[in-house]
Amino acid sequence: xxxxxxxxxxEDGLTLGPEETLQREIEKSKTLKxxxxxxxxxxxxxxxxxxxxxxxxxxxxxxxxxxxxxxxxPERTNPSxxxxxxxxxxxxFLTLLWFVTRN
Length: 103
What we know:
By secondary structure, the protein is mainly α. It has helices spanning about 20-70, 80-100.
């Protein structure tokens, strides 16, 4: 039952006592807990960002679908605008014809 105590070596070759070893383990544990909390926060931020990007992606897909449907439908022209265009062309032709016959 009486086994010799092998004290852990420090990086610089010094032997630590039980109190120093315990203090070092406590510091390591605290550091690991802080890192774990930081990583949890980072994971939550990334999940929120992923969700936001997925929603934005879905909105863009819907927008593309709507634009694709709008482009495939035939363009409808306003009948009054096409009538106006024909009237302007006829009047322009008549005015040109009037100038030619006058000279």
